[in-house]
């Protein structure tokens, strides 16, 4: 497909559902060849790949739990074995294990840190080797407004996402000289499976100036922009909130 990402190879972690799924579609629509990563939802990942192929795009699904360093390696290897390079990495895979601090078990803490923070480190480290050699690349990390302003019940999640923000800025500085940009996107409340069970909708909407939840496609549009060349070539080390105005 022709577009601003024609012939680029994009890896989207957690591309089977939600924001990652919408991102896989958006990058494919821009012409990228897309690696759709998932952990468990193989049917959902296959459906994303099939839909991309139906519209003339290229995509493969790769199962890998990116909270595990060895499996992250399998994912990035699958991309390079298929297409020889990685131009765009979207570190999107994430989970929540919400509960108030006093009730939070060490395993709730660890699972969220392992995927939402360490997973970003594993994939970025592997891809950075390729991008530094290529002297080009885009790394887009999905943070959250919870990492910027905190959120009761999310000590684990907000710590991981704040970690992603610091990580993004440091890696942006380390890689800038080789033409690789690293940015973070911090969504507010987006309609996905992750936010499906939020019961206090009215209370949440009071804090969103635009008065509604966001759509996964809206976040995907921002990610597509950050991946685009030359449109976003001069943006690095930034955290872009996409939250209907919650953080301003
Ligand atoms: P979602 O609908 O729950 O989808 C999560 C995705 O991550 C799925 O594709 C899932 O694949 C994948 N995943 C889960 N564990 C994984 C693992 N260990 N290895 C690889 N992939 C794994 O979530 P979402 O709402 O789209 O969230 C996407 C990102 O945006 C996350 O980083 C989240 O923290 C962030 N975010 C979301 C919101 C929101 O309001 N939705 C707000 C701020 C930030 P499987 O189905 O195979 O498990």
SSE blueprint:
Elements: E1 9-12, H1 18-29, E2 33-38, H2 42-54, E3 58-63, H3 69-83, E4 88-91, H4 106-134, E5 137-142, H5 146-149, H6 155-175, E6 180-187, H7 201-205, H8 216-227, E7 239-242
Main sheet makeup:
7 strands, parallel
Proportion of strand residues: 15-25%
Global structural class? alpha/beta
- Provide the residue-averaged pLDDT: 97
Helix content: 40-55%
Shape: globular
H/I helix tally: 8
Spatial strand sequence of the major β-sheet: 3-2-1-4-5-6-7
Radius of gyration: 17 Å
Low-pLDDT regions = none
Termini separation (Å)? Answer: 37 Å
Q: Which distinct ligands sit in these coordinates? A: NADP nicotinamide-adenine-dinucleotide phosphate
Q: What is the N-to-C order of secondary-structure elements (H for helix, E for strand)?
A: EHEHEHEHEHHEHHE
Count all strands and give the number. 7
């Amino acid at each position: 497909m022709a577009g601003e990402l024609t012939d680029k190879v994009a890896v989207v972690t957690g591309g089977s559902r939600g924001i990652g799924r919408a991102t896989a579609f958006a990058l494919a629509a821009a012409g990228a060849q897309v690696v759709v990563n998932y952990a468990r939802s193989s049917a959902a990942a296959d459906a994303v790949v099939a839909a991309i192929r139906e519209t003339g795009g290229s995509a493969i699904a790769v199962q890998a739990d990116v909270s595990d360093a060895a499996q992250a390696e399998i994912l990035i290897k699958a991309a390079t074995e298929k297409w020889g390079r990685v131009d765009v990495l979207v570190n999107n895979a994430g989970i929540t294990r919400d509960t108030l601090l006093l009730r939070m078990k060490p395993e709730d803490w660890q699972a969220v840190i392992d995927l939402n923070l360490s997973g970003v480190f594993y994939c970025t480290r592997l891809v950075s080797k390729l991008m530094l050699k290529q002297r080009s690349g885009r790394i887009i990390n999905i943070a959250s407004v919870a990492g910027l302003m905190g959120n009761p019940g999310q000590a684990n999640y907000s710590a991981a996402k704040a970690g992603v923000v610091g990580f993004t800025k440091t890696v942006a500085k380390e890689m800038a000289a080789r033409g690789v940009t690293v940015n973070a996107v911090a969504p507010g409340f987006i309609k996905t499976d992750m936010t499906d069970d939020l019961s206090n909708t009215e209370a949440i909407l009071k804090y969103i100036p635009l008065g509604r939840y966001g759509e996964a496609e809206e976040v995907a549009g921002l990610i597509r922009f950050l991946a685009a060349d030359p449109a976003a070539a001069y943006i690095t080390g930034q955290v872009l909130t996409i939250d209907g105005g919650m953080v301003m």
